[in-house]
Amino acid sequence: MRQTGFTLWLTGLSGAGKTTVARLVANHLQQMEQMKVQLLDGDLLREVINKDLGFSREDRFRNVERAAFIAHLLNTHGVIVLASFITPYQEMRDYCRQNIAEYLEVYVKCPLSRCISRDVKGLYKRALAGEIKHFTGVDDPFEEPDNPDLVLETDRESPEESKHRVLAFLEQKGLLARMAGERG
User: Fold this and answer.
1) 122 is in an annotated binding site
2) What is the pLDDT of residues 33-78, one digit of tens each?
3) What does each C-alpha distance from 100 to 31, 85, 96, 104, 160 come to in angstroms?
4) Is residue 18 part of an annotated ligand binding site?
C-alpha cells in the first residue's frame, strides 16, 4: 500500500503563532508518534527558494504556489507537512485546497493588536513606520478564511493548548491512526 501524507496549512497574521504551533505539533508527531513530518515555514522558504519574490499580491501567490507544490510532493511520499504561511487571500487558500490532495486549513486567529505586541522580529514596528510596504494587517489586507477546518485563538489559549487541539483534531479525523497504520 502506498503511503500518502497530508498537509496541515496554518494561516494567520504575522505573530499569530503559526510557526510556534506547527513546531510543537511537528515535534510531537516526530518524537511521540514516530511519523515523517516536514515543517514548511514561510520565512525559511523566502530565504532560500523564494528570495526572488517580493510582497506584491502576485509574488505572494507565487510563494504559496511553490509551497503548495512542495507540500503535495512531500505528501505523495508519505510525509506529513505542517505549512506555516500568512496566506492572506482566500484565493490562495482555495488554490492550496485544489492542488494539495489532503489539505486541512487551520486558521491561527489572533487580533492585530496582540500580534503587534508580540512583534519579536520588529516587522510591525517597521511597517507602521512606513519602512515596509504591503505588510499584511497594516497596509495590505488579511481576508479571514471562509471555511477553515480548525480555528485556534492564540490570544485565548497557550501554544500547548493549541497543540493539543490540533492533535485532537487530527485524531478525530482518523489521520494519526491512518499514518501509524501505513508506517507499521
Assistant:
1) no
2) 889 999 999 888 888 888 898 888 899 999 999 999 999 999 999 9
3) 25, 15, 6, 9, 27
4) yes
